[in-house]
Structure formats: structure tokens, C-alpha cells
Amino acid sequence: MTLIIGIIGKPSSGKSTFLNASCLTNAKVSQLPFTTINPNKGIAYIRIKCMCKTLNLEDNPKNSLCIEGNRFIPINLLDVAGLVPDAHKGKGLGNKFLNDLSKADVLLHILDITGSLDKSGNLVKEGENDPYEDVLFLENEIDLWFKEIIEREDWNKFVKVFSRDKRKFVDELYKRLSGIKVNKRQIKLALKESELAEINPHEWSEMNLYNFSKKLRKISKPIIVIANKIDKEISLENIKRLKEKYTGPIIPCSALAEYYLRKYHEDKIINYIPGSKNFEILSPEKLSSNELDALNNIKSKILEIFNETGVQYALNFAVLEVADQICVYPVSDVNTYSDNDGNVLPDVMLVKKSTLLRDFVREKIHTDLADHFMFGIDAVSKKRLGENYELKHNDIIKVVTSK
After folding, report:
1. Which pLDDT tens digit goes with each residue over 55-64?
2. Of residues 98 and 189, which shows the higher confidence score?
């Protein structure tokens, strides 16, 4: 199943800028609310240390990129329309926003940490809005969206029919929720964590249903707060205050700075690797004095304080930490670490941590190969691996079949 990272937030908070910075796309950007109406899609990359460095090899990537020993692995990003209060009731572009969001696995909440947007995304004086209130309202809107999908109009009839059989109840609830990428394991975990596993759903109160919806949303679509616009003077103080109130992950970020760095790199004016804490100016003569000042400000106000712009860190954190993915390199030759065409370390696959080898073959390589699976070989240690081998991060694996 393809991993999708959703970009959410109020109108004008910097969502499209984050997408553009991550993917070098050209999504329309404006300070006016609802500039984004249809979802913008893009391919971004997570960054890991490539195994070519560890093994002292010259690789030939096919499904990814290798830059100076850093492997960049593609992921899908989705930037949806801005969210306003009562979006779950259809206000603003609420219904469209939430429907577009249904396939996302992890959500990046692009938060204007300067507090310069009102509840509808209109520009106000810096500090006039409390970013913590934005976090609360957005998470509540998505939790209420989950609740409405779960209960619909026939909730009482639904629980009367299925609540006596726990397994049947979970199966039918899964059918209701399968359109928003929720699985049975997540439903069972949400029931347990909301302390409702042993309570007949017919006896649930309105608050029980809301708490279950909230738990299920946190499990199936976790949210990472991206504190955007950190170059502003008010931003550091606002981040400090937010951390005192909010216990979830908060990542300082300047999407605009990242966009400029990647754009200048693409134009060969600077040398910059996404996620780095520095850059090298290659062609200063192509820059105006204002552009040079802007680059110096990015270096002094962002990179030297936060070690990077936050965009690459946010992508890595979402995929490797929150979505719990690991990287696996499939190869055909364990001696040269290559495929059948001689490409060294050609592909790297993202898989869920704890994935078993046979499941990896079925889901990521080919179903027919899984049916004829014999064993795997760890290309580094040359050890033989059984079908129940639990894959580890940076494994290099050869699959042996009877076909």
C-alpha cells in the first residue's frame, strides 16, 4: 500500500509553500484564503545514509537518488484545501478537504507560528492569534469528521444489530471506515485505549463515541505540528509557549527558506543538499545584493539556530518515526549487491517495521514470487533467512524462489 503524507492547516498557513519546497512543484501560493481548492500532489523524498557508503560501493540507483552518500527515497505528498472551524459540517471547503484527506497515513499540520492568521485564514497583526488554538481546533475538526463517519445516521440501528458479537462489530466498523484507510488492528487498539473494548457499543454515551473517534484518528492519522515561519522574531517565543501546552511533536520550520535554497540549487547558483545545515554559493555574480542578504539571513536566522530549515526533518520524522517505516534493499547478486542488469543497490523499499520477509516479497516485489518463496539471503552476512525473518532497517536481501 502506498504511503501518503497529507499537508493540512488553515488557509494561508504555508501548506502550498511546504509542498513546493518539498517537491519543487508550482502549487499556487497566496495570502488569500482558499487559494488551494483542488488537492495538490507531489513527490518528495526522505533522506537516509545510503548503504553505498557503508559498503564502499559506487551505486546505480533506479527508484531513488543517491547524492554524496545520501539516499533520497520518494514518498507521496498531498496538500489539501485549508481547514476552517466547522469544516466537518461542510463550512468553507470542509467536505472536500476531508474527502481529499481520506487516503493519508500521516498528517503534517502546517501552523503559522507567528499567530498572524485569524480562524478563517485572513491576515491579522502578528501575535494576535494564539497558535495553540489553531492546533486545538484543527485536531477537533478531524476528530469530529471521524465521529460523523462512524455514527452516520443509522448508528443506533447499527449497534443494535452488531454490538452483541465483538468480532462482527469490528468487522462491520472496518467496512464503514475502510474508505479512510483504517484497518482492524487500529480499531481494536482504539477500543482498548478508550477503555471501550468490554462495553457494549449500544451503551456508549456521546462522549464515549467522541473519545473513541479521537483515539482512532490519533492511531490511524497521527498529526505532526510543523511550526512554520520560524525566521520571524515572535516565532521562538510562540514555539516555547506552544510546547508548554501541547505534548505532541512540534517541528520548527521555514518552508519558504527551503524553497529558495532548493530553487537556487536547481539553478546551479548554490550547492545545497536538502536537510543540510549549510550551503555553498557557486555563482555569487548571479545574485543581487538583496538575494545575497536573503541567503545570509537564511544561514544566520535558520540554519545556524535550527541546523536545517525543518522541511527534510519533517518528512523523515513523518515516515521513519511516526509511520514506522524502515528501508530495505532487494538485490539479485549477494556478492556485487546488484540486480540482474548489474545495477548496484538499484532499489530501496519503504516497509513497515516488523514486516516479515515473505510478506515483503508478496507486497513489494511480486505475489507469484511469494507463492514460490524458498528462502532469503542477507547479502552482507550471507546468512540464510526464513520466511518469518523480521526485516531490519538497511537490510540488503536476495530472495530465492523455486520458480
Report:
1. 999 999 999 9
2. 189
Instruction: Say if residues 303 and 309 touch (Cβ distance below 8 Å).
Output: yes
| 281 CB-near residues (< 8 Å, 6+ apart) | 269, 270, 287, 295
Per-residue pLDDT tens digits for 381-394: 999 999 999 999 99
Domains, in order of start, for the chain = 327-401 (3.10.20.30)
Q: Rounded to an integer, what distance in angstroms lies between the CA atom of residue 269 and that of residue 273?
A: 13
Q: Answer yes or no: are the C-beta atoms of 283 and 346 closer than 8 Å.
A: no
Name the pairing type of β-strands 395-401 and 373-378.
Answer: antiparallel
Strand partners, 377: 384, 398
CB-CB contact of 361 with 373 (8 Å) = yes
- Look at residue 119 in the predicted model and tell me its pLDDT: 77
In this structure, are residues 237 and 195 in contact, taking their beta carbons and an 8 Å threshold?
Answer: no
What long-range pairs does 126-129 form, CB within 8 A, spacing at least 24?
126/232, 126/234, 127/234, 127/238
CA 314, 131, 111 angle in degrees (round to 5)? 30
DSSP 192-213: HHTT-TTS-GGG--HHHHHHHH
Q: Does residue 171 register a pLDDT over 50?
A: yes
First to last CA, the chain: 25
Phi, psi of 71, deg, nearest 5: -95, 125
Check: pTM over 0.70? Answer yes or no.
Answer: yes
Specify the higher pLDDT residue, 103 or 224.
Answer: 224
CA distance 268 to 90: 45
Nearest by Cα to 218 from 240, 193, 244: 193
DSSP annotation of 71 reads: E
